[in-house]
């Protein structure tokens, strides 16, 4: 960097970064809000998470506008999606795997949205640039708070040496004394019981060292998180710490055409073998569900996802002249067209497996993944045909986040419980299942609060135990008293208002309507995998 008018060959020292108080104060305020919303809830999230994400969205966008930097559309969109994922934990109780995916999506939206808030262009960024920004947002959490502390104008807190300001200097000293005593006094009290009693008698306060240390640790953790997010959203010099990916490839049509042509032939041969199975709509002779459907579905989904990556990499490595040639578009079409048959085969396997065994969390997530992959490949086909595949990554990310939100809104726990209980009541049989399926109470309990209303409404079905308990001597279902006691003990209590969720409120109402069990009961096992017969 050179100053105006200085000789170009004379190195100039960079100007120091400006000292700002508001970034650290913003992070501290958000951390304190997070602590107040979550402390004492036992780690439960619900309304508190939705309130905090909405608060973060409002604060950082208002602060960016106040500093004269209009927030980018991409950043606001991702932070809004983060707020929506916070709402999903308030309205529904996601199943375990779905809850993990929602938490991951919430973290990604917060980090990537913060990184892109002041830097428009994410919609045109490539896959590597987007990954670089997401990785950088995670790195910001490591050192963001340290930067905010370094940029804080600590010199302004130093009092002037003038005599009339003596009381101000004393006040500053008192302010600095409070945190020191707040840290060291409880530590010394925990080390010596007699000192603790003397300190309590002096202050007439109950010193709960464990709670104090726990609260202090939570506050520091929230401060580190909010410091990293605020730094990325309001102070970072660029969204990604990695250099931008090259925009133009060097391979010609022959170099990319040979592997794409071979892949197209392979897909065409496989699709030709799948067409009779698609038209037949049944399990091939000699095949088992585990080999043909469960494992086959996962393998076909892997093929579809890897194909999208291969086509995108081939586009990135090709020269601009090769990308615009009709032959390149024809090669992409030759790969994608038989891939539609492969996707149809995967969908058929999912249907056959569901007809045989009903719904489960894994099957619901598998269907959602199939929908996202199909939409992503359709968008990739459009961008490849229009020679705009460089803009593929951001819409594909939005498609994935939208699919996850819609899946959560369907309340998979309640959907699985209703479908499987209905199959039990109706005695469903088909070409894939010759004996009626029984709903498994142990599996439904693992889905969480979303399945409780359906379970409570059909308690007689779920507790209809087999007459012969089997060689183990244990009944192949949960007894009515045990299941009722379990539901009442787990869901009948009032939840902390900060962690309120609509799903738990409905589960509580359903549990309270159950009769109070009488007589000895046993806790239900964690899982019951053996199907029961009538």
UniProtKB/TrEMBL annotation:
Superkingdom to which the source organism belongs: Bacteria
Keyword Mitochondrion part of the UniProt annotation: no
Gene source species: Deinococcus daejeonensis
Keyword Transmembrane tagged: yes
Lineage, broadest ranks: Bacteria, Thermotogati, Deinococcota, Deinococci, Deinococcales
UniProt keyword list: Membrane, Transmembrane, Transmembrane helix
Name of this protein: DUF4173 domain-containing protein
Ranges that cross the membrane: 20-38, 45-64, 76-93, 100-119, 131-149, 170-191, 211-237, 258-276, 296-318, 330-352, 364-385, 392-410
InterPro entries the record matches: DUF4153
């Amino acid at each position: 960097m050179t100053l105006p008018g200085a000789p170009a060959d004379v190195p100039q020292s960079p100007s120091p970064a400006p000292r700002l108080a508001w970034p650290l104060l913003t992070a501290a305020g958000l951390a304190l809000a997070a602590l107040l919303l979550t402390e004492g809830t036992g780690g439960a999230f619900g309304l508190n998470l939705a309130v905090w994400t909405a608060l973060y969205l409002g604060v950082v966008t208002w602060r960016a506008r106040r500093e004269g930097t209009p927030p980018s559309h991409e950043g606001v969109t991702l932070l809004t999606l983060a707020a929506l994922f916070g709402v999903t934990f308030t309205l529904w109780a996601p199943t375990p795997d779905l809850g993990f995916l929602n938490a991951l999506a919430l973290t990604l939206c917060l980090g990537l949205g913060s990184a892109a808030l002041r830097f428009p262009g994410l919609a045109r960024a490539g896959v590597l640039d987007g990954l670089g920004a997401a990785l950088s947002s995670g790195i910001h959490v490591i050192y963001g708070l340290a930067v905010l502390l370094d940029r804080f104008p600590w010199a302004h807190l130093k009092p002037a040496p003038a005599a009339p300001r003596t009381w101000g200097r004393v006040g500053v000293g008192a302010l600095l004394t409070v945190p020191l005593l707040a840290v060291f006094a409880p530590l010394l009290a925990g080390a010596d019981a007699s000192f603790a009693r003397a300190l309590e008698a002096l202050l007439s306060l109950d010193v709960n060292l464990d709670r104090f240390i726990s609260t202090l640790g939570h506050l520091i953790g929230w401060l580190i998180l909010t410091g990293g997010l605020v730094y990325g959203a309001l102070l970072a010099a660029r969204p990604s710490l990695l250099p931008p990916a090259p925009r133009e490839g060097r391979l010609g049509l022959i170099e990319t055409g040979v592997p794409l042509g071979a892949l197209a032939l392979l897909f065409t041969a496989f699709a030709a073998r799948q067409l009779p199975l698609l038209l037949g709509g049944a399990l091939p002779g000699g095949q088992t569900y585990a080999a043909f459907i469960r494992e086959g579905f996962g393998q076909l989904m892997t093929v579809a996802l890897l194909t999208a990556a291969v086509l995108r990499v081939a586009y990135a490595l090709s020269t601009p002249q090769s990308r615009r040639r009709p032959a390149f578009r024809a090669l992409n079409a030759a790969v994608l067209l038989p891939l539609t048959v492969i996707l149809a085969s995967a969908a058929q396997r999912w249907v056959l497996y569901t007809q045989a065994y009903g719904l489960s969390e894994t099957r619901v997530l598998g269907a959602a993944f199939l929908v996202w992959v199909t939409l992503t490949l359709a968008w990739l086909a459009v961008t490849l045909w229009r020679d705009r595949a460089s803009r593929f990554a951001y819409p594909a990310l939005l498609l994935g986040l939208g699919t996850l939100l819609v899946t959560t809104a369907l309340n998979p726990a309640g959907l699985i419980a209703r479908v499987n209980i209905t199959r039990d009541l109706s005695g469903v049989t088909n070409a894939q299942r010759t004996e009626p399926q029984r709903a498994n109470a142990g599996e439904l309990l693992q889905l969480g609060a979303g399945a409780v209303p359906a379970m409570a409404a059909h308690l007689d079905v779920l507790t209809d135990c087999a007459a012969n308990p089997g060689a183990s001597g244990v009944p192949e279902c949960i007894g009515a008293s045990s299941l009722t006691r379990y539901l009442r003990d787990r869901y009948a209590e009032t939840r902390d208002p900060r962690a309120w969720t609509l799903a738990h409120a409905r589960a509580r109402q359903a549990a309270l309507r159950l009769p109070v069990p009488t007589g000895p009961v046993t806790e239900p096992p964690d899982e019951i995998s053996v199907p029961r017969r009538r």
